[in-house]
Amino acid sequence: MGKLNTSHLIEAMAWVAIAALFFIYSFEFNQKIEIYKFGATAWPRSILLMLMLVIAGNLFYQRANGSTPQPGRVGISEDDLDDAEKPLSSYLNIGSFLFLPLIFAWSLKPVGFYAATPVFTALVIILLGERRPRWIIGITLFIYAIIIGLFMIVLNAPLPQGTVSPFYDFSAFMLRMNNQLQNMF
Q1: What is the pTM assigned to this prediction?
Q2: How far is the C-alpha of 170 from the C-alpha of 110, rounded, in Å?
Q3: Following DSSP, what letter does each residue of 17-70 receive, concatenated?
Q4: Under 8 Å between Cβ of 117 and 147
């Protein structure tokens, strides 16, 4: 078994169980779609296949190398982590990372995707440690432009618009701009 230990196998089995559960659940919405010949489950199942490939690759790597850190690896080793003191701010940061997506998902109905996404992106950048306002704004606008371009122009996917007045008005503006852009081509 090489350098595999029980914890590696337990981790792999947990990921396989999650992938199997999602695969079984995909039969609930397995329907044909007129404009997409592979059906509604093609993308979710493709992602599950990629997850299975990552699990297999991880097992092969751990079989050859175990949990030993790679030479020249950025960061600290697992032994250094045991001795490191963890301040309260690190726990708050981890908690923020856990709750921020939940708050974002909750805000999609009243605020809408178009207004909530740049705020969510900026907060994630701040949680990652960036403090320079120009960089925060620039990276947020860049990521927002990519997301809007992907969902509105390439995929033409409907996004939550929000129900609260100023946010709904902003969403309506974005949809009018998208409609005008689509009519130009």
Answers
A1: 0.59
A2: 13
A3: HHHHHHHHHGGGG---BTTBTT-TTHHHHHHHHHHHHHHHHHHHHHHHHTTPPP
A4: yes
